[in-house]
Amino acid sequence: MTDPMIVSGTANDIDSLRQRLIAGSLQVQQQIIPQLAELGNEGLEVLMEFLLKRRESPATWIDGKAYQVLYNSDAPNAREFLQTNFPEGIVPLKSDAGINYKPLQQLLAAQDFQAADRMTIEKMCEVAGPTAVKRKWLYFTEVDNFPVTDLHTINNLWLVHSEGKFGFSVQREIWLSLGKNWDNFWPKIAWKDGNNWTRYPNSFIWDLSAPKGHLPLSNQLRGVRVIASLFAHPAWTNKV
Questions:
Q1: DSSP string, 10-76
Q2: What is the pTM of this model?
Q3: CB–CB of 36/4 below 8 Å?
Q4: CATH of domain 102-236
Q5: Residue 7: band (very low, low, confident or very high) from pLDDT cuts 50, 70, 90
Q6: Pick from 12, 11, 29: nearest CA to 20
Q7: CA of residue 103 relative to chain centroid, distance
Q8: Do the two domains 11-85 and 102-236 of this chain adopt the same fold?
Q9: pLDDT digit string, tens, across residues 190-227
């Protein structure tokens, strides 16, 4: 339901939206961002101002939504702003393995979750090394040795660009909340329905209507050991 206080057209409206974007709850901010997107350059300017004020803090999914509006805009001032202030994207692309995560950020910013899912496993294979790149999937032992920094970067990219719905940490929290019960976990994130595994790719949901934790697939078709290693990784207790 759209906030009845949100209307468009006058300078007062823009100023009201600006203040509510800065001071409002997550729900209010979530409503206001698409409203600003419909107001042309004036709305985009508010989103730019919003991101600049928050750039020294770790990006949240609200920052991700504001960034996505600018990223997917054809407006020259939006493109210039992002190139100047966020040339790699809203999420810092740190890697201890020398991996370029910019293509993954671009796919997620464009909300192309299916391509981003494929890119995620490709990048994880790059981290694991040439043998994994050649085979195109991971052994659980390779996940055990994954750099904390890289796992944080991949996870943050998914979190920030999915309204906080997707990411390994989201999946892990769900798994923990279910007492680490895999049989309950698979249907909870819609990877299984009864006795039937969700068929790749057409039966998966590649947008934000998916259940929380539905993506990324994290090598889902190769059994439990890879995702179990992900959930046991020290990244979730070690900050970078």
A1: SHHHHHHHHHHHHHS-HHHHHHHHHHHHTTHHHHHHHHHHHHHHHTTSPP-HHHHHHHHHHHT---H
A2: 0.93
A3: no
A4: 1.10.10.1770
A5: very low
A6: 29
A7: 13
A8: no
A9: 999 999 999 999 999 999 999 999 999 976 656 799 99
